[in-house]
Amino acid sequence: MTDRLEAQLAFLREADRLKSVLRASRLIDGSRHENSAEHSWHIMLYALVLEEHADPQVRIDRVIRMLLLHDIVEIDAGDAPIHGQVDHAAMAAKENAAAQRLFGLLPADQAAEFRSLWEEFEAAQTPDAVFAKAVDRFQPPVANLASGGGTWRDYAVTLEQMDARVGHPVGRGAPALWRWLRPRLERFFSAV
Amino acid sequence: MTDRLEAQLAFLREADRLKSVLRASRLIDGSRHENSAEHSWHIMLYALVLEEHADPQVRIDRVIRMLLLHDIVEIDAGDAPIHGQVDHAAMAAKENAAAQRLFGLLPADQAAEFRSLWEEFEAAQTPDAVFAKAVDRFQPPVANLASGGGTWRDYAVTLEQMDARVGHPVGRGAPALWRWLRPRLERFFSAV
Predict the structure, then answer these.
(1) Quick one: DSSP state of residue B52?
(2) How far apart are CA B58 and CA B77, in angstroms?
(3) Which of helix, strand or coil describes residue B22?
(4) Domain extent listing, chain B
(5) Quick one: pLDDT band at residue A115, thresholds 50, 70, 90?
(6) Within the 145-174 window of chain B, which residues sit less than 8 Å (CB to CB) from chain A?
(7) Which of B141, B155, B151, B162 lies closest to B30 in space, CA to CA?
(8) pLDDT beyond 70 at A190
(9) Min CA distance, A67 vs chain B (Å)?
């Protein structure tokens, strides 16, 4: 029992480092970059509040668990900004190694369970994962619209890129949210 | 539908400010103070990982929802450090007003649901709330032990105060975690 608890606590202490992984996006007030731990908290809140916009098959508590775990690999692999230049194959390899090491700190049964939830999220095929991905892609544009552009200005993003990078996953997992977002993006990008 | 979604998004944008509410505690690496949003993420992870140490009646997904919402009132009311001097009646009044304003941004049905979960957490009477409180009080000492004292040094905390402020809620909601923690606290406090 003590060994098991020690393994759990080793994982939980290591998880503290997600608070130091910085994302490209900033807080709405512009004061600083957002970190991946507080981002994870925020999109879990998005999932809970916006549940009614998900497919009826979606089990929101599983989505929340997925989002709780989804960025932990970034402790080793770092954050890959959606609008940055990323070598996707190299990133996937780094994230797999990170999942191995980080979830591997846990007792074997929990390591397998968490890893499987994380892989389900990454694969984005089940209704729960599709909604989780939609929420993860929906929060940054809401923040950017509220703060006058945010990362879109940093990365010189175009509306066409938004349609591909945000429209596809959000439209697939939460069509009502994309219907809300699309005309606002169009207005923003036609003005810049 | 659009009015409803606008209300949900107003709440979610306002929630961004929880990332700027600083707690007394620091990250384990000592680099900076922790904020209440990333703290909320971390204790949700604690709850998920440590579920087996809860009473069998506890429904962990409800606990996770409670922890997701539990600090949102701090956007208006600020954080009350467990080892600081706090006027508890004044704080409760501020938090009630904060709950009214912040959850009140949501559609009425969600405002009522979230407020009720938050009140259940605060009252700490149901098995779910008792475990949620235990987890909320267990994470800071784990971090302090890992970082050589942290807030205990800042506030000149004694073992007797730890027994009252941490031992009571953790021992009640997760006795196995208190059995792990107590001898480590004793060792730490006998050495300072």
Answers:
(1) G
(2) 29
(3) strand
(4) 2-191
(5) very high
(6) 146
(7) B151
(8) yes
(9) 10
The tokens describing B146, both together, are 């890992």
- Residues A130-153: tens digit of each pLDDT: 999 999 999 999 999 999 998 898
Residue A118 has pLDDT above 90, yes or no: yes
**A19 in reach of chain B (CB within 8 A):** yes
**Is any Cβ of chain A less than 8 angstroms from the Cβ of B143?**
yes
CB-based contact A142 B31, cutoff 8 Å: no
> What is the reported pLDDT for B1?
62
CB contact under 8 A, A176 and B64: no
Report the residue of chain A nearest B27, measured CA to CA: A16
Contact assessment for residue A72 and residue A21, using Cβ atoms and an 8 Å cutoff: no
Question: Is 0.90 topped by the overall pTM?
Answer: yes
**Alpha carbon distances (Å) from B45 to A30, A183, B69, B85, B114:** 28, 37, 14, 29, 20
Residues of chain B with pLDDT > 70: what percent?
Answer: 99
Side chain identity, residue B83: H
Within 8 A of B102 by CB-CB distance, chain A residues are none
Contact B53 A5 (CB under 8 A): yes
Please determine, for residue A34, whether its predicted confidence score (pLDDT) is greater than 70.
Answer: yes
From chain A residues 59-78, the ones with a CB under 8 A of any chain B CB are 61, 64-65, 68-69
Nearest alpha carbon to residue B47 among B113, B99, B103, B121: B121
CA A132, CA A144: separation in Å to the nearest integer? Answer: 20
Does the CB of A103 have a partner CB in chain B at under 8 Å? Answer: no
Please check whether residue B79 is in contact with residue B41, taking contact to mean a CB–CB distance below 8 angstroms. no
Neighboring chain B residues of A65 at a CB cutoff of 8 Å: 48, 61, 64
Q: Cβ separation of B146 and A11 shorter than 8 Å?
A: no
Domain A2-191, classified CATH 1.10.3210.10, yes or no: yes
Q: How far is A133 from chain B (nearest CA, A)?
A: 17
The predicted complex's ipTM stands at 0.97
Q: Please check whether residue A82 is in contact with residue A140, taking contact to mean a CB–CB distance below 8 angstroms.
A: yes
- The per-residue b/e assignment along A31-48, b for 16 or more CB within 10 angstroms, e otherwise, is eeebbbbbbbbbbbbbbb
Q: How confident is the model at residue B84 (pLDDT cuts 50, 70, 90)?
A: confident
Q: Which residues pair with B26 in a beta bridge?
A: B33
